[in-house]
Amino acid sequence: MSDVTKSAPTLRFEITLTVRDFVILAVGFGCLIGFARMTSLGFIGYLNGSVVSSGDEWYGLRALVGLATLALLALNGWFSRFKVGLSAVVGATVVAVASAILFAVDSSVMLGPLIAVLVGVSTSALMYVWLLLLSSYGKADLIAVSVVGLVISGGIVMGVPLIDDAVALIVSVAAAFCAGFCALLSDHTLESCMPDGRLSCEQAAEIPWFSIVALAASGFVATVVYGISEHLTGLYDWQPNYIVFGVAAVSAIVATFGMLLTLDTWKDAIWSPQMLIVVLALALSCFSLRETMQGAVGFMLASVFCAHFLHWVVFPAMLAESRVPRAFLAGILLILVNGSLGTMVGDMLGSILPHSMQNLGGVAGLSVIVLVAILVAARGALHVLVPEQSPSDQAASPGITTLESRIEAYAEEYGLTPRESEVALLTAQGFSCAYIAEKLVVSNSTVRFHQQNLYRKVDVHSRNEFIERTTGGE
């Protein structure tokens, strides 16, 4: 018998956050998601006593302004023009609060465009800050924070339409305030939002582009098809099967979390649970029975929900474990998974469908073709544009050897301890605090403690300054 055995995946779930930090992050994240949900619908059904709808007449303007804001923030990360600091976060928070108050006071046609612009800018900016902030923590911390935050946001989204308008305004203002204030409490220097420059070819090769494209494509297709199905439900009574929705959503979330916590290669397969739900939805859509259509819409609703929720865990984890400029990539990721764009396209297509195509089976068939074409094109393009490096190539990289020798020289010159040297090397390679903590099996606070000692000894003031000094030549 062979002595070689395969070890089973082991569950690695260790929360390193203190109770205080956990509460701040969970409350802030929950308020962000809750407020973002209200603003995505233009506050319709939340601050005016009407029924919650899929949006308002300024939906398109709000979505485009949000996308433009994310694009500008991504470019700023690339060119390192300015730091998204205290004034930017405070400004976004004040604007978010003002948008809710303006809508409650007067949501007329005159103020509608102004409110849409304010909401698009402020919500996108806060989302950008939170994605970078969450990427500073380990996977177990991310999962715990996201689950509790989801419960908080669910209470906001489902509870606000049931209360008096005046109380609803107070809740929405409090949610906007907490989204910004809790971000500052968690990272008062906002070092996590520091612009960190351009993406090199070597760094681009480390990014799991196919997984990102697959996640974005599955979420976009599901959102578009669900938007179309909303227009067809009135014709055929295809209300979602909520049992199917619940089982599918929970299964996808559990599978995704399981991959994150047990697989070293999770970044290459993390797209599969969400893609499976989309495939099941499109497959059921091909049958014209009422029950199968309701099941299909249930699967679609689950895929939309997962696409909007899980990227707040998956993408921060990707950023934490990749040695890449996070400030640029965070903006790109939020653009790719922007649900407003998919909803806008779905609503538009649903309203202009010709009578001959007013069945979900035909739409599903076209969606399968589009989805397969995107994935095939992405796989082919990535093989050409971003060739993968083998582990042996990465190990033989002269840059790593140069960094190691430079850190050894620092250790001798500045009296670094062995642990500080380990932290110094991983920091210089661009890894996040969360990844270093998992790599060295210590807490985030311990890593930050060693980094502060390191920066003091080497006479630098930030992570970016240390990286620039270490990698900037002799």
Task: Name the overall outline.
Answer: globular
End-to-end gap: 54 Å
- Average pLDDT score: 82
Total helical elements: 21
Provide the succession of SSEs: HHHHHHHHHHHHHHHHHHHHH
- Binned, the helix content reads over 70%
SS strand fraction: under 5%
Main sheet makeup: none
Query: Helix/strand-derived class?
Result: mainly alpha
Whole-angstrom Rg: 23 Å
What does this structure look like?
- With 474 residues, the protein is mainly alpha-helical.
- The protein folds into three domains: 19-195, Growth Hormone, Chain: A, CATH 1.20.1250; 204-385; 392-471, Orthogonal Bundle (Arc Repressor Mutant, subunit A), CATH 1.10.10.10.
- It contains 21 helices and no strands.
- Helix 3 packs antiparallel against helix 4 (112-134).
- Residues 1-7 and 389-398 have low confidence and may be disordered.
Question: In terms of topology, how is this protein built?
Answer:
Layout lengths: L18 H22 L18 H21 L6 H20 L6 H23 L4 H21 L5 H22 L14 H6 L2 H28 L5 H21 L3 H4 L2 H13 L5 H31 L5 H11 L2 H14 L7 H26 L5 H5 L2 H17 L3 H11 L4 H8 L3 H15 L4 H9 L3
Helix pairs in contact: 1-4, 1-5, 1-6, 2-4, 2-13, 3-4, 3-6, 4-6, 4-12, 4-13, 5-12, 8-11, 8-12, 8-14, 8-15, 9-12, 11-12, 11-15, 17-18, 18-20, 19-20
Tell me briefly what this model is:
It is built from 21 helices and no strands. The protein has 474 residues and is mainly α.
List keywords for this structure.
globular, mainly alpha, Arc Repressor Mutant, subunit A, Growth Hormone, Chain: A, 474 residues, 3 domains, 73% helix, 21 helices, disordered N terminus
